[in-house]
From TrEMBL:
Biological source species: Pararhizobium mangrovi
Protein name per its UniProtKB record: Tripartite tricarboxylate transporter TctB family protein
Domain DUF1468 positions: 15-176
Chain ranges passing through the membrane: 12-28, 48-71, 106-123, 129-145, 152-175
InterPro entries per record: DUF1468 (IPR009936)
């Protein structure tokens, strides 16, 4: 398999992951939120309005990215893409650089974050916003490299309460209460 085809397939896989998230969001909007009668009415009382809008926008961006990956010229191999320390006659497949390992780690972290968000969306109706959101934030912060437990927990709880107050208290958006039925505002 050529390196160009391999790069195109890797990029397409990442885009497919984002499309999968959008499909899960639409599934949530048309099943769980509809069953809770939270997916009808005007924008202020429709908990599905913003997720549907953002998912549609993300799907459109994903389609543009797929067109760029498969029909654009961003994946042409050229001599100037080789690292400086390599001989121009040496095969690219034999060259392993630290940059490749670093990029792989960044891609892996991004994929893990996408997976965490997908899990968050699936458990949100059962756990509720005020339980699921801090767990998501803690997992994402640790995945992205935060190591101070006090900072991670404080940031997760603080952001959950602030965002919950803005959406639940000020904007009157119905946040999923979960099995504990937590609705502070």
């Amino acid at each position: 398999m050529s390196s160009e085809l391999k790069a195109r397939l890797q990029h397409s896989s990442a885009v497919a992951g984002f499309v999968l998230i959008c499909v899960v969001i639409y599934w949530q909007c048309f099943t769980d939120l509809a069953a809770q009668d939270a997916a009808s009415g005007g924008a202020q009382y429709n908990a599905a309005f913003v997720p549907e809008l953002l998912s549609g926008f993300l799907i459109a961006l994903c389609m543009l990215q797929l067109v760029r990956v498969w029909f654009g010229n961003g994946f042409r191999e050229s001599e100037d893409t080789l690292p400086d320390e390599l001989d121009a006659d040496a095969p690219v497949e034999d060259a392993v650089t630290y940059e490749d390992d670093e990029n792989f780690g960044l891609v892996l972290r991004a994929i893990l974050c996408v997976g965490l968000i997908a899990v968050f969306i699936l458990v949100l109706p059962y756990l509720g916003y005020y339980v699921a959101m801090p767990l998501l934030l803690i997992a994402v912060l640790v995945t992205l490299g935060s190591r101070n437990p006090l900072t991670v927990v404080a940031l997760a709880i603080g952001l959950t309460l602030i965002v919950g107050y803005v959406f639940g208290g000020l904007l009157n958006v119905v946040l999923p209460p979960g099995f504990l039925e937590i609705e502070p505002w």
